[in-house]
TrEMBL record:
Pfam families: LRV_FeS. Residues 7-59 form the LRV FeS4 cluster domain. InterPro entries: ARM-like (IPR011989), ARM-type_fold (IPR016024), LRV_FeS (IPR008665). It comes from Sulfurimicrobium lacus. Transmembrane segments: none annotated. This is LRV FeS4 cluster domain-containing protein.
């Protein structure tokens, strides 16, 4: 017998239609063993039961099995959902959140479960996200960095996680890029360099990462990249010399080239 053929409840006991409080639904075609059953342990079967019998969902919001509570929350009257925000299971809390208005989302910005907070961050907008910028989980902050208004992104300039700062570097206004161009992480500096121009870009002429220097050599004023013709990196030297000579070279994928160098290949 495979799982798909089983009809077991959440405690592993066989489902019995004869003792079910909803057995009259069987004759009406509104439930079916191994297909649509509120007592089955499989979420799809529980979901189908409530899809066929929405009016019963309110009765199951306090069921001991978390899957039943979470799925019932999808169909129950919305006025019955706020208490579920205190449910012990994060799946139930989030299922309720999906249907509740913004004021309830605001209350869940500090939910103990990171998955709930991540989903809250995806649903909130604008300044409602500000309170989550210091979340202890880096991925929550990353979502905030993706969605925070441009004018507030500077609040994440010094985030402890490089992925967050990298996202900030991709979105933040030009007036803040100089700060990220001095970041301790090379990838963050590179992202900043790709957006900088003029003197701000040339300030990275001596950056310790060859990819950043390559960006300078590629786009800085030709007469100003002269120091890079003797750079320790071959690609940087080549692009700098071609710029001085007025030649055009095709662009180099510095991310790919960096990966090759990391494997010990010459570019």
């Amino acid at each position: 017998m495979t799982d798909i053929d089983e009809a077991l409840d959440w405690q592993g006991q066989p489902v019995c239609c004869d003792s079910c409080a909803h057995r009259e639904l069987l004759a009406l075609g509104r439930c079916q063993l191994r297909r649509a059953c509120v007592h089955d342990r499989y979420a799809r079967r529980i979901d189908r039961f409530f899809y066929w019998n929405r009016e019963l969902a309110n009765q199951y919001l306090a069921h001991p099995y978390f899957e039943v509570r979470a799925i019932a929350a999808k169909f129950a009257d919305v006025f019955h959902l706020p208490p579920l925000l205190q449910d012990a299971d994060e799946t139930v809390r989030f299922s309720a959140l999906l249907r509740l208005p913004r004021k309830y989302l605001l209350k869940m910005r500090h939910d103990p479960d990171r998955e709930v907070r991540i989903r809250v961050a995806y649903r909130l907008e604008g300044t409602d996200l500000l309170e989550m910028r210091a979340d202890p989980d880096y991925y929550v902050r990353l979502v905030v960095a993706r969605r925070l208004p441009f004018e507030s992104l500077h609040l994440l300039l010094h985030d402890a996680d490089r992925e967050v700062r990298l996202m900030v570097a991709k979105r933040i206004g030009m007036e803040w890029l100089k700060t990220l161009a001095a970041d301790s992480d090379a990838d963050v500096r590179l992202e900043a360099a790709r957006r900088l121009n003029g003197e701000a870009l040339l300030a990275l002429l001596r950056d310790p990462d060859w990819r950043v220097r390559y960006e300078v050599a590629s786009r800085g004023e030709a007469e100003r990249v002269l120091p890079l013709i003797d750079d320790e990196d071959e690609l940087v030297r080549e692009i700098a010399r071609s710029r001085i000579k007025g030649e055009e070279l095709g662009p180099v994928n510095t991310d790919f080239a960096s990966a090759l160098q990391g494997e010990g290949h010459e570019c």
